[in-house]
């Protein structure tokens, strides 16, 4: 896996998270984003991204993610 | 009690020359029962002789009174009582003078000070804080034991991205901003490495010369020298990457108390390594100075790093 692939995966992840935030963590409404992730990224990553927000909310932690664009200060 | 103790100490110790002249034998002391005959000799230490009282001196007024005037019995008793009382006050003065002399003598004697010295040492030891706690940055390490510097760090031998063996001794004299991760990390490692890069960019040029950012992989099976090199270019050009044999990595992680876990089945190339996520700041002598959790922001880490570099 090289850096460009990683960057792509991270962008797709950000899109998935935005979708999940809109739809209250309902993955059935974010099927498009998930499909794209499954295409381009390793399965271990996608599986992690799928339930990451839900996992953090259950634990009572902030579902804080820093999108690529906002990081560039 | 002090006098008694003093006497005990003196008797335990060296023989001392007794000055006989300083001792007042009891038979010659001017006690109240002796009456008129010895009133003349109250001020001298020598054995008294009978002296004819002379007229005009204050000391002997009492004796003149009792000798010259014819008195009634009760008056005689009264006068005698007066004489006794005056004797008593004079005795008291004498007694207090003697007491003062005794006290001065005791204070001059070095043996007096032994017991107070021992007691004061005991009291000081009771109040002195023997469990010294570390100050400054180390005092903020919440979960780590505060009875000393945590035993994190140690000597290690790894391989850099050019295939050259590297030991920890090469980093002596410089601070290390160290992170353990792996290149196939989906989110945590990139975020922490971005934080470290942000800190580096915000440091002054002077501070930058004192610190080295270091990444050590926990996944030597997949993270070759080239993979690590390429991965780190994404974050900051000054980043150094280390990999090694699985044995070397294991040894190093033991010394830094890094938790890492491979899943049971990792035959194929796609797996995640669960690991602890701290950024370590090591000092120029190789000891731990501070560590930063994932919850801290770039600015918070930056401030603490600057504080350590300024020490």
TrEMBL record, chain A:
Keyword rRNA-binding appears in the UniProt entry: no
Gene3D superfamilies: Cytochrome c oxidase, subunit VIb
Highest taxon in the source lineage: Eukaryota
Cross-referenced InterPro entries: COA6, COX6B-like, CX6/COA6-like_sf
One BP annotation, GO: respiratory chain complex IV assembly
Presence of keyword Heme: no
GO CC terms, sorted: mitochondrion
UniProt keyword list: Disulfide bond, Mitochondrion
Localization per record: Mitochondrion
Main subcellular localisation: mitochondrion
UniProt-recorded name of the protein: Cytochrome c oxidase assembly factor 6
UniProt lineage: Eukaryota, Discoba, Heterolobosea, Tetramitia, Eutetramitia
Automatic annotation (TrEMBL), chain B:
Recorded GO MF terms: metal ion binding
Compositional bias ranges of the Basic and acidic residues kind: 58-97
Region listing for Disordered, in residue ranges: 28-99
Biased composition (Polar residues): 28-47
Keywords from the UniProt entry: Copper, Disulfide bond, Membrane, Metal-binding, Transmembrane, Transmembrane helix
GO biological process: mitochondrial respiratory chain complex IV assembly
Disulfide bridges in this chain: 185-189
TM region(s), chain numbering: 110-128
Superkingdom of this protein's organism: Eukaryota
Binding site for Cu cation: 185, 189, 275
Xref: Pfam families: SCO1-SenC (PF02630)
Recorded GO CC terms: mitochondrion
Family: Belongs to the SCO1/2 family.
The protein's name: Sco1, mitochondrial
Organism: Acrasis kona
Lineage, opening ranks: Eukaryota, Discoba, Heterolobosea, Tetramitia, Eutetramitia
């Amino acid at each position: 896996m090289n850096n460009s692939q990683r960057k792509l995966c991270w962008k797709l992840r950000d899109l998935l998270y935005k979708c999940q935030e809109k739809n209250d963590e309902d993955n059935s409404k974010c099927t498009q984003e998930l499909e794209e992730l499954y295409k381009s990224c390793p399965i271990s990553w996608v599986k992690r991204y799928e339930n990451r927000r839900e996992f953090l909310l259950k634990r009572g932690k902030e579902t804080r993610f820093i999108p690529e664009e906002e990081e560039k200060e | 009690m002090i006098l008694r103790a003093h006497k005990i100490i003196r008797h335990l110790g060296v023989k001392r020359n007794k000055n006989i002249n300083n001792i007042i034998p009891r038979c010659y002391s001017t006690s109240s029962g002796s009456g008129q005959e010895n009133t003349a000799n109250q001020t001298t230490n020598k054995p008294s002789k009978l002296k004819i009282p002379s007229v005009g001196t204050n000391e002997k007024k009492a004796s003149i009174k009792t000798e010259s005037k014819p008195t009634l019995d009760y008056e005689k008793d009264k006068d005698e009582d007066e004489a006794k009382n005056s004797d008593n006050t004079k005795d008291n003065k004498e007694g207090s003078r003697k007491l003062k002399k005794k006290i001065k003598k005791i204070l001059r004697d070095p043996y007096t000070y032994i017991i107070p010295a021992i007691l004061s040492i005991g009291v000081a030891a009771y109040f002195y804080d023997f469990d010294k706690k570390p100050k400054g940055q180390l005092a903020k390490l919440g979960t780590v034991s505060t009875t000393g510097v945590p035993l994190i760090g140690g000597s290690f031998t790894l391989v850099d991205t050019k295939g050259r063996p590297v030991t920890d001794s090469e980093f002596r004299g410089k601070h290390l901003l160290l992170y353990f991760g792996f290149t196939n990390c989906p989110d945590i490692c990139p975020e922490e490495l971005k934080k470290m890069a942000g800190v580096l960019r915000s440091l002054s040029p002077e501070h930058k010369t004192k610190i080295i950012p270091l990444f050590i992989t926990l996944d030597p099976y997949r993270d070759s020298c080239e993979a690590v090199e390429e991965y780190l270019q994404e974050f900051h050009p000054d980043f150094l990457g280390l990999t090694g044999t699985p044995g070397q990595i294991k040894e190093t992680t033991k010394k830094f108390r890094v938790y890492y876990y491979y899943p049971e089945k990792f035959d194929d190339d796609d797996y995640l390594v669960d690991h602890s996520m701290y950024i370590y700041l090591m000092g120029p002598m190789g000891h731990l100075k501070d560590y930063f959790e994932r919850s801290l922001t770039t600015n918070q880490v930056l401030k603490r790093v600057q504080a350590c570099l300024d020490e």
